[in-house]
Every structure is written in C-alpha cells, then in structure tokens.
C-alpha cells in the first residue's frame, strides 16, 4: 500500500449507511478513487483490472439512468417554490464542484500515465529525462534554440494549483514538451524516441478515458429536456478551412522530393546548433526552421497563408544568404521556394481577381448617373426629360458645333465611350444649357432643364461620395454655381420676355376688337342672348363646367373635348355653348419619341362657340393630381381623361399646369378603391414605318459618331510654362500633345529599351520643344530583373524601382503611357484612363553603387496650373492586398544549378549504365567475408544502396555523395585562391562573411575567367598516389569484370568515364604486377590498399556483407560510404567546400592533426563514466541491437575495439609504416 497515498475500499462505504453523503457526486468520487487505485496497482491484463473497468462502466450507466429519472420528475413537476429554487441552486453548485473534480482527476490520470510509463524489456522509466529542464550551465544553447521550455515538474505544479482551465491546456503543454525534445535532440536518439513513445502513451490513455464531459452534461435537467438529443456534442476534430490551407502548404514543402526520391526539406527541419555553426547566428539575424513554422501553425498564429509564406521565404533567404551560390542547399532552397509559391497559387487561385476593374466601374457609374437623370420624375410621374426631347441637336447661334442630343449621349454611354466623368458632364450640361438658352424662363422646358441639371449634380455627388470614391474635376461645379448661372441668365432674358408679353397682349387686343366689329354687323340677335347655368338637350342636362363631346368638323376625326364655360339661348331659340378645347396627343405637334400618360389630353389656347345640338355626350377631364386617386360617379373609364399640361398651338410647345383654374363641375367624385398606376405610353406617331426610319437615321448617326470615337476625349490645350533656368531656344510646356498623345509633367511613359525583355519606365519632369523636336527629362524606373538580388527575394507584381539614372530622351522613343503609384496609392486607387496592365508599384529606390534597395516615403508630386487637365482618380471601397511573386531570377538560377549538377553527375550515371550492361553478362558477385568476429558479436545494420536509402536515416549517403560531387567545380578552385586573399585583407572576418565575399567575387567574375577555372578542374587529378595493383579481400573494384585466362585486357576507358592518372581503368591490372593475396606488390604505395578507390570521384567502397560469398569470387564495387566512419554532427548541413575549408583552417603549426587521436586511443571503458543524458546521445542507431552485450554502450565500445584491431592487422599485414 506504499504505492497508493489515498487508499479506499468497499468496506469504507459505511458513510453510505450513516447517510454521510450529501450528494451522489461525493459517492461517485470515492468509487472512482477506489477504481483508479485498483487500475494503478494491477497489471492491465489481470482479472482485477478487467473487473474494475466493467464496474466503472456499470457505475456510469447507472448514473445516467438516475439522471434521466430526475429529469422526468422535474419535468412533470411544475410547482415553483422557494424550496425548489434552493434545491436548484444547490444542484448547480454541486455540479460545478463535481465538474472541477472530474477534470482534475482526468488530468492526474493522464499525468500518471506518462510518469509511470516504462520501456518494455528493460523496465527503464521513460520520463526520467523529462522531469526537469536541462541545466543552463551544461546546455546553454538549449535555451537559445528552445523558446518555450517545459517539463513534467511544471505540469504537475500547474495541475495541483488548478492553473489549467481545462484538459486541453494540459495536453498542449505535454505536446510542447515532446516537441522541444524532438527539436533539440537528434533523430534516432534515446530522448527523441522516448518523446515519441510517451506521446503515444498519452494519446492512448486519453482515448481510454473517453471524451471529456461538456458543460451541458452537468447542467440543469430542465435545460437538458429542451434539447433534441441527450448526447453532448464533442469537440470538432476537423480543421478550419484556413488551417487546412496552411497544412496543405506546409506538407507540400515538407514532402517534396526530387526525381531520385530525396526529400529536400530534411535540412530545413531544424536549425544548426550554436556550437556547430556559431557564425550562422552572427550572419543570420532572424533564424527560422520548419519546426518553428509548424509550432506557429499548430498554435494558430498564422491568420492567413501570406504570413506563413513570409516565414518560409525568410527561411529560404537565410539559407541562400549563408551558403554559397553553387552549394546543394542553395539549390534546394530555391526549388522549395518555387514549390511553396506554386502551392500557394494553386490554393488561392487567380491572384489578380481581387483587383477591381476601374474602367468598368467608371462606365457603370456614368451609366447609373445617366439612367437616374433620364428617369427623374415629378410627383405625378412625368419624366422631366420628355419635354427636352424636342430640343434641336444644333444651336442656331453656334452652327459649327457638332450635333449633340440625349439620344447621342445615350448611344455613347451604351457603347462605353466615356472614360471620364467630366467629359460626360460637359455633354449633358451642353444639352441642358442649350434648352435654357432657346426657351423662355417661364416655359416648361426651361424649368425642366434646371431641375434635371440640379438633379444631375445631386446624384453625381452621391455616386462619387463627394470625391471619396471618384475624384474628378467635374466635382468642382456645384449647385451653388448652377443657381448663380440661372439667376444671371434670368436677369438677361426677363426684360426681353416682358417686352414680348406686352406686344402679345396688344396684338390679342387688336384681334378681339376686330372680332367684335365683325360680330356687331351680324344683327341685333346678340343683344337678345339669355345666359343660364344649365340647359337640357335630348333628355340630358348640361351645366357650366361640364365636359362634353362635340361633333367633329370632319367625319373621320374623333369627337372634340370641350369644357363648357358659358351657356345661352339666342332670340331664335337656339341654344349655344362657349368653352375651351382640349387636344388629344395626336392633335398636337410633338416628336415621336415623346411619351404620354394613358388617356392624357392637353388644355389648348383655342376657345369657340358651338350649338348645343352638336353635343354627342358627356365626359370628364381631371387634373393630374386628382386623377390617380379619385374617380367620377356614373362615368365609364373610357370617358375619363387626365390633364397635366397646356399646349400652345402658336409655339407648338407644352407647359406644365401648376394651378387648375377650370370651372367647377357638377360631377361628384369618390376615392378609388386602388390608386391607378402611373403609366406612360409612346406617341401614336411612333409606328413601324417611323421606327424603321429612325433606325436608318440612327445607323447614319452611329457611323458619324463611330468616326468621331477618337474625339470623345476632353478638350485640352498646350500649356506653356516659363523656366527661369531653361536653355535658350527651348520652349517648355506643362501639357503638350505629341503624336495624338496628351502628356503632362508628372506622367509616366514606356521608353524603348534595347536588349531588355520589357521596356523601361520614365517619368516626365520637364518637357520642351527645340527646333521642332520634342524632348523630356526625368528619372528611370527599372524592373526587378535589372537589379542584383537573391533568387529567393519576392517582389510585388508589377513592382518597379526608382533608379539613380536620370536621362533626357526624345519623345520619339515613347511607346505609350503608364502610371507608377506609391505603395499606399497602389492599394487604394487607380487613374481611370490607364489600363490595369500599365499600372506599376514603386516603394523602393535601387542604388546601383551598393546594389541595395531602400524604401522611401512616397513618390514626388507636382503642382501644375489650372489649365492642365488633372487625372480622374477612382478610390477602392476596400484596399486591395497585393500579391508577391517570385524573383525572375529564381527559375533561371534553378535551371543553371540543375544543369551544373547534372553535368557533375554525368560520370556516375555512365558508370551505373555500364554496370547495368555488364550485369547482364556476369552475375554480380557478393562481398568477401570480413576476417573479424564482428559479424558474430554485433548485429550490424545492413548496407542500403543510396538509391533506396530510407528517409528516416539521417545524413544519407546520397547527400554525402552529392557533396563530394559538388567539389568538382571551378568555383572550388577559385574559392581556395580568393579566400586566402580576402582572409589576409580581413583577418577578423568570420567564415560566413568570407564565404559571402568569395561568392560575390565569383558572381562578378567574367565569363571567360569562369570558363578557365572550369577547364582547369576538368583535368585536375585527385590527390591520390597511383595504385600499382589490386588488393584482394579489402578493395572492391567498381564496375569491374572478372578477367578470364586467355582474354587480353582492354586498354580503353568506357565512354564517359573520367580518367585518373596513375590508376588503371576498371578491369585492367597494372602491367608487370603479380597479383598477390594478402601482400602488396613490390614498390606499391601503402595508401593504395587503404584507400581502395577505383571509379568515378566521390565514390567509396561499400561495407562488406559478412559471410555471403567465398573470398575467391571476383567482386564489384557499389557506391556507398565507408562502413564505420563517424559522421560529424548533422552532416547534411556541411556544404560542398565547407568541410574541406574547415579542415584547412583547423590545422596549426603545433600539431599535424586536428583531432586528439592520442587521447581517443588511450580511452578505456572502465575509465569513462557517461551520464544518462550522454548515453542517450550515443549513435545507437548504428547497430540493429546490442547483441550479447549488456548495454548498447558496451556494444559500441566493442565495435570501437574491433575497428582498432582491424586497423592494426592491416598495418602489420602490409607493412604500412606511416599511417
């Protein structure tokens, strides 16, 4: 019982008999304690353990059954009292306490599962190295690599003090601890494996406990009754869409492999330690690796894909900054950078889809403005633009101006011929101002024109939001300017109109006098008229103010509509009426495009008398304000008319009636059940023939307008400017037209550039004309491909850089207009007349001298005179997010490096192909047996060819082979010479700084010089003494056929195989050398037998397979690494020349070697005491198992002794004196 601090048994349940349990939760807590104690003490496969699990399930099922029963009872009881409220509050309080205890118990169970986990077989506790964080004194670099240390002691403290809000927080800390262990320690080490195993145990234990109870499971039963299902919802196991995208990007980079199956991301998973590469952290200011990116992703620190891409780009940029341009890691960084960007492009789709199309937006704004103005109606539903349809297209006072009407403007709008709002406004105002000039101030047309112009300004400001959406010179004309113009116009026209009215009244008076004189001679009958307010005719009564149908003058016409104003009877007994005539639309003169209300008539200026005998019937004419709401009693709908305007037959014009002055009718009006809709119909003159004729006219007008499409530009003029420091004979301009292209100071243009893929961009800061030729002066913007930068650098799409170059260019070299915006403007606005393809972004200046890009605050702005027409600027409702694209050098650099590596690997491929061909003729022999007890005592990991190296093996032979191949380049020769020179000039520079300077010098080297170095390396012999003969049993000959007696040896190298001076080709034994087994030939170099290399450079003899073939069989070489070569830490991080250079720099005059080999030879197992941490770092993965030895450390010591013994045997057998 010493293992269990809180023991509990069934016999202790006397508390139940004594009614000491206040709640069911307290009883459950004691039972759970008893069950967990039993599970901790007994083996999981024992009978007691299984019974405990069964009893726990029974308890949980019974608890749910009791809870459901309580729910039903509470649901049936609807009594609300103080007692029930008290019970409810107690239940809630107990539920909260129970919930807290359950969570804490679960966390303790999970913690104990990790604490008590042991290694199968040995019984070693797996958590020993996770209890306390490493010492800062012993492992100072740990706290520089691991930013958030975590250990089990801290987790236990948090559980005990209720620091965790929930179980998930504790699990996250556990996972953080395991991630830290895997990040800091080598893959395959004991700590690394223990972290994997403990995380797996934690996951299985959590799965065994089941899902965590949600809040609703311990809530009020009444709340549970309202739910459709009693099952608590589990936490979603699915990632959000953004998390899925981030994970997809990360996995694409991590899992990318080249054509040989090599995973390129392996070296980027973890940063190098400071002890390994201390200068790395001096050179690289912001180190980052894929483990850190993954931890940020798991912690939801990335809000979008771009933020993750930025970290990846920084990581690749760090690799290219630190490593040399022709290294393998440099190439891998570029390839993964490309994979990253391609994956992002696939996920996010079209990058430019979010940039608004400003041209379409401007056309839409103009279209909406035009439709709104043309559809503007008064209170009665009359369109103001109807009266303006009769305006002539040309003003007689200005006959030379091109014709312009609303129809022409409508066609221009429909054909998207307007790119500027101010030009559209000028055309609209020209039509409206012409209507005002040609009509009286009291006419309907004049008033409608003013109303439409005022409405245009109002809608324009709403659509442009007073310049917040569209900034245009058109906004400078406001309602205040319109009122001033109208008042000024009225003051000019009113005196003339008053004089016209006076003359008109005098003329009417004279005509009235003439009519009276003519009627006076007709007799005395007029003196005997008897006037009355009503009269009867044909059983109908007619009153003053009634509307009647009068017989038309011609039989084929419709009856006239007359309003009775007077009734009388003459001396002869004949009854007469006098009144005002109302005209139907077909009785007026108007354009066929004019629209009318249904049943509309017009009050005319014609009055006359008619005999009552010509009355055909009654009708009703209503004012427009009453027509749609009221209806007359006892009248058919076809006899009811509406009037809203008067018609002048003399001027053939319409004018809206403001005040209805007709006599009061005797007809009674009642409200309509449903108000009539306002419907306007086309004129009766708009028949088919008329429409066809108009279509023909429109086609002619379209052809004319089509010819003048180029003229739909705002009128501009050349604007000269005085220059105080100008050259004599030069005429300077702020605005100038050149080759039908209007240019102004501050504009950007495309310039012809010879030898470049894209034309350069120049900005006009001065322009002048001299001797008939035009010139401009300004700075030049260059594209990214014209700058020097790392291939991993990313640029905004359409980004350019302001250079130090300022040029004077003739305007003949201008190809077209464009615009360069600052970063802020590029995100928020666009000029309306420039295509999106011609819009560029500039936020940096490129200094040619130091090859640096520096950001600046903004581009230069110019202040011009009022005569210069400013650009219209459209502002986006929401700023765009510009996307970055890879450097144009990326693909080119990748292709160059791939071609370089392919060339270097060509020899190996030829050797492999030759080996395959020879393999068809001769069966591949196996390796000779190693003459040591190694095979029997140690279980060595089998040899794996590089082509099938598992991805889990760190520092694969393929990577090492690649590094050896890279050494064969002209750059290495150049580096060995130049590094010494730079080192002498800058002795205090670090290795990384020297590497960067060497790389810069190599990049600046002329192509001919580079070719010379490449030519030198092609004939460079390896630093090896010549081999004088074979060494059987030790040396394996690559791609060698066995020689049969009587077959002469070949004396030519196979195609593509590099020749090595002093070394015979494969299958050729040195002349005059007798093959001996176990003894070298006389005069043979002892190094030849030890090195044992024959084949392409970079290949070494593979480890022999123990006991697979007799020693007498000929053997063939397989490309691999030496069998027992202790790899340096993280060998895959060493560059192609870095290992060699470090070796050279590590030599000193006091010692002939770098390592302390004498201390290593003197070391003994009994003298060395390793801590558990040091033992965990031993390369135990070299051996498959410990074999007959007690521990893996003993097995490794035995391996070391055997290797030393074999070395001495080789030395003695071949009389090697100077090893």
Automatic annotation (TrEMBL):
UniProt xrefs under Pfam families: BAH, Bromodomain, HMG_box
Q: Which SUPFAM superfamilies match?
A: Bromodomain (SSF47370), HMG-box (SSF47095)
A cellular component term, taken from the record's GO annotations:
SWI/SNF complex
Q: Which residues form the HMG box domain?
A: 964-1014
Record-annotated membrane-spanning stretches: none
Q: Where is this region: Disordered?
A: 486-526, 905-928, 940-962, 1095-1116
The GO annotation for biological process reads: chromatin remodeling; transcription elongation by RNA polymerase II
Query: What spans are recorded as compositionally biased (Basic and acidic residues)?
Result: 486-517
Residues forming the Bromo domain are 1-49, 122-192, 260-330, 401-446
Q: Which domain of life is it from?
A: Eukaryota
Q: Name one GO molecular function term.
A: chromatin binding
Task: Please tell me where this protein is predominantly located.
Answer: nucleus
For this entry, the protein name equals Protein polybromo-1
Q: Which organism is it from?
A: Accipiter nisus (Eurasian sparrowhawk)
